[in-house]
Amino acid sequence: MKFLESFFENTLWSGRLFVILAVIFGMLGAIALFIIASFDLWDMAKMVFNVYVNHAHPDKFHEEVVGLIIGAVDLYLIAVVMLIFSFGLYELFISELDPAKTSASSKILQIHSLDELKDKLAKVIVMVLIVSFFKRVLHTEYNGALEMLYFAVSIFALSFALYFLHKGHGNGHDNIDKEGH
């Protein structure tokens, strides 16, 4: 009976290694999003260069450029979510990342609990939602005072949410422990 229990527990413990699939494909998704956003910004830079070289400013050119930049930032933030997700799952289920322990700049990627992973992901996801909101607002036309009021209330609600998101972390240095590391 002890052998069967030991075999089952070892098999169950080894089953955690299937998380590596989420880690690998999460990293591939992040890389793909970084590449897509970079090419979008490259295309936008070429467009801006051509507009200024040809001295032709199409209608709503600035809004289009800002929209492209906000879209790229949105993709970069989603890529960061995927990176944090991948690193967090790896550290929680597979092994600690040895290079991360020696690097002073990667403290944000060190995850020690599922709650810590969830909190870090939530912060970045909120930022993605805010950027997506502003991207949509950029292309919205307002046809009355009530719509402008809704717009103002939505900005206030976002500000309120950001305030409470950061209020719980004191001075914003949530990656520094009591000894200053």
Describe this structure in words.
The protein has six helices and no strands. The longest helix is centred in the first third of the chain and has 35 residues, at 19-53. It has a domain at 15-140. It has 181 residues and is an all-alpha fold. 75% of the residues lie in helices and 0% in strands. The radius of gyration is 22 Å and the shape is elongated.
By DSSP (H or I, 4+ residues per run), the number of helices equals 6
Instruction: Report how far the terminal alpha carbons are from each other.
Output: 47 Å
Return the structural class: mainly alpha
Order of helices and strands: HHHHHH
How is this fold's topology laid out?
Elements lengths: L1 H13 L4 H35 L7 H34 L3 H5 L11 H25 L6 H23 L14
Helix pairs in contact: 2-3, 3-5, 5-6
Give a brief rundown of this model.
With 181 residues, this protein is mainly α. It contains six helices and no strands.
Provide the descriptors you would attach to this structure in a database record:
single chain, 181 residues, mainly alpha, 6 helices, disordered C terminus
